[in-house]
Structures are given as structure tokens and as C-alpha cells.
């Protein structure tokens, strides 16, 4: 065992449905504007342009069911997403073989400090200040693909305080899961433990302290996240 000059960071891990073992997280990739209606509401052309990705940090993933309202922002938005967990990595993975790399799926949120992201966009700067803050990705337990099958269609939705705000279908993804994996593997060496947040449907909007968000994806059930 090597000696370190400071205490080594803990490995981030996520619970798995029906398994006492946990899933260790390596990297977190997020695809932007992957539903046509969301691209339109954000002021962009919904045509099938090449995908783009940004990253969150592994410890941004938070299975606690609590979302502390972050500092330095007064406009924090919800974005419900399907999270895809990989158990195999590699480079130049073909779309035909990509699903062999998927361990399972989970409900997730890409919480966004929209005002800080908007400022970064205007100035041509990276988005991390708006996307990769502490606990910015609430996530549910992982459902192994061996139990769910491939989730390429099914309702995805989000309610705030009981009112439906986002609703769509996984078949509306512009870039499907195998294509996302293949594209990423052309630019990065994917690894076991990588997580991909696959994009959000239309209807994103702000939350406030005290709100209750309820996520739903057909095949994965629902989860509740409280804004504190």
C-alpha cells in the first residue's frame, strides 16, 4: 500500500437493487440537449447535430434523497435524466456492441445553477460552475440491466410538489444510449464505473427550498428528492 501525504479520498459508490455490493463510480459524463423539445426550449436547433458532453464529478452523485439548495445562485433548475452505468470500458466501441458495456440504469437529476451557467455561456466559459457543484446529481439505486432489459422506450417524468413539470419518452432521445457510448469512446477511454446522464426532456424549471421533486422512469419506478 502506498503512503499518502493527506488522507486518500473515499471511493464514491452507489447502491444496487437486490445486491449488498455497491457500484464504484469512475467518471460522470452528461450529454447536452438530447431531446428535441428541450433543445428548442433552450433556444437551439433540434436537428441531429453531433452530440456534446460535459462532466460532473463522481462525488456530485448523491443517493440521499436530499438536495441542499446551493450557494451563489437564485435560479436552480431540475433536469430529470436516465443514468446509464457501465461495467466494461474501452475505446472505439461500435454501437452494435455498446450495450454489452451497460451494467444498469438509475433515476437521476442534473441539477443546474442556471444563472451561473447562462453567464458562463455568454462569456464562452466552461459550464462546471453551473453543473458540477456539490450534490448536483441526485440519483436512485441502480437497477441491473439483467433485470430491466434494455430501456430504449418508456415514460420519463418529473413532478414538483405533485404537479407534472417534465414528461417524455426514452424513445425521444436524439442520440440513443448505444450511440452515446460509441461516440464517447472515440474521444475517451471509457472504464468500468463510468456513468452517463443521457439528457432531459422539455419542461425544465426552477425549484425553491421546501419543494419536493418526484422522478419517474418506466421500468425503474419513482424516487423522491427533497429540496432543503
Write the layout of secondary structure elements.
Blueprint: E1 13-16, E2 19-24, E3 28-31, H1 36-41, E4 53-56, E5 61-62, E6 66-67, E7 76-78, E8 80-86, H2 95-98, E9 102-109, E10 112-113, H3 114-122, H4 128-131, E11 137-138, E12 143-144, H5 145-148, E13 155-160, E14 163-169, H6 177-187, E15 195-197, E16 205-206, E17 212-217, E18 221-227
Parallel strand pairs: 3-15, 5-11, 6-18
Antiparallel strand pairs: 1-2, 3-4, 7-10, 7-16, 8-9, 8-15, 9-12, 13-14, 13-17, 17-18
What does it look like?
The protein is of the alpha+beta class and 228 residues long. It has one domain (13-152, 169-207): Alpha-Beta Complex (Fumarylacetoacetate hydrolase, domain 2), CATH 3.90.850.10. It is 17% helix and 34% strand. It is built from 6 helices and 18 strands. It has helices at 36-41, 95-98, 114-122, 128-131, 145-148, 177-187; strands at residues 13-16, 19-24, 28-31, 53-56, 61-62, 66-67, 76-78, 80-86, 102-109, 112-113, 137-138, 143-144, 155-160, 163-169, 195-197, 205-206, 212-217, 221-227. The chain has a 6-stranded mixed sheet with strand order 4-3-15-8-9-12. It has a 5-stranded mixed sheet with strand order 6-18-17-13-14, with no helix packed on it. A 3-stranded antiparallel sheet has the order 10-7-16. The model has no long low-confidence stretch (mean pLDDT 95).
Amino acid at each position: 500500500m502506498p503512503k499518502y501525504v493527506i488522507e486518500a479520498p473515499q471511493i464514491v459508490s452507489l447502491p444496487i437493487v437486490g445486491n449488498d455490493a455497491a457500484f464504484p463510480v469512475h467518471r460522470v459524463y452528461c450529454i447536452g440537449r438530447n431531446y428535441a423539445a428541450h433543445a428548442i426550449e433552450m433556444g437551439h436547433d433540434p436537428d441531429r447535430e453531433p452530440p456534446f458532453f460535459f462532466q460532473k464529478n463522481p462525488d456530485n452523485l448523491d443517493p440521499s434523497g436530499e438536495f441542499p439548495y446551493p450557494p451563489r445562485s437564485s435560479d436552480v433548475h431540475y433536469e430529470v435524466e436516465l443514468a446509464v452505468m457501465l461495467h466494461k470500458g474501452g475505446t472505439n466501441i461500435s454501437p452494435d456492441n455498446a450495450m454489452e458495456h451497460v451494467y444498469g440504469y438509475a433515476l437521476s437529476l442534473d441539477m443546474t445553477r442556471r444563472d451561473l451557467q447562462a453567464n458562463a455561456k455568454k462569456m464562452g466559459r466552461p459550464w462546471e460552475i453551473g453543473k458540477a457543484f456539490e450534490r448536483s446529481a441526485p440519483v436512485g439505486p441502480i437497477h441491473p440491466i439483467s433485470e430491466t432489459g434494455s430501456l430504449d422506450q418508456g415514460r420519463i417524468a418529473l413532478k414538483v410538489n405533485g404537479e407534472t413539470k417534465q414528461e417524455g419518452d426514452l424513445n425521444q432521445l436524439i442520440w440513443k444510449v448505444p450511440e452515446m457510448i460509441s461516440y464517447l469512446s472515440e474521444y475517451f477511454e471509457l472504464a468500468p464505473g463510468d456513468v452517463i446522464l443521457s439528457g432531459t426532456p422539455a419542461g425544465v424549471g426552477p425549484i425553491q427550498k421546501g419543494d419536493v421533486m418526484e422522478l419517474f422512469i418506466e421500468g425503474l419506478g419513482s424516487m423522491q428528492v427533497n429540496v432543503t
